[in-house]
């Protein structure tokens, strides 16, 4: 509560409690972060441009934020939970679709690739933290690795299921999205760096 322009002790305690949960220590904080990550991935498909065969959505942006914000196990759990929710039929994939058929279809590799990409991206970020480089540099390295894994998985399944030659599958499912996805990685890095500075950290430091 605010009294005479001053935040009351109750308000301060509530703010500190929420901050601890979101940053925080313990299983409850980890489960909350996983739930928020899963929700972000599910919601990210609501913005869609229906391209063929792979539509444009904000899923990669959401995945990038998950990679930068979470520990490796939490990021993988968020991505895996998203895939599971969709596989069970919830309309959380592009086009408002769900179900196993979507995962096993031509573009399903991009969805399944989120799990491996979350693992690789968070591990690259953790490994790069041992190097003397600015946070924004190592964050971008991690996100480029994240996106590359998504592309590799999606490209492979597109070739296999749609019976496309490697060059044709790359031209249809990867090439149109590279520039846009790198822009999403830059946006996610900027947001994460701003968050670090807001918490009193320094985005320029390793």
What does this protein structure show overall?
With 206 residues, the chain is mainly alpha-helical. Helices cover 69% and strands 4% of the residues. The chain is built from nine helices and four strands. The chain has helices spanning 9-23, 27-43, 59-69, 72-87, 100-104, 108-128, 135-162, 166-173, 178-198; strands at 2-3, 6-7, 48-49, 56-57. Strands 1-2 form a two-stranded antiparallel ribbon. Helix 1 (9-23) packs across helix 2 (27-43) and helix 7 (135-162) packs antiparallel against helix 9 (178-198). The termini are far apart. Mean pLDDT is 85; it is low at 1-8.
Low-confidence stretches: 1-8
Query: Portion of residues in helices?
Result: 55-70%
User: What's the rounded overall pLDDT mean?
Assistant: 85
> Measured on Cα atoms, how large is the radius of gyration?
19 Å
Give the helix tally.
9
Please list the strands of the largest sheet in the order they lie side by side.
1-2
Approximate shape = globular
Say how many strands there are: 4
Structural class, from helix and strand content?
mainly alpha
Bin the strand percentage: under 5%
Q: Largest beta sheet, briefly?
A: 2 strands, antiparallel
The ordered H/E elements are EEHHEEHHHHHHH
How many angstroms separate the termini?
38 Å
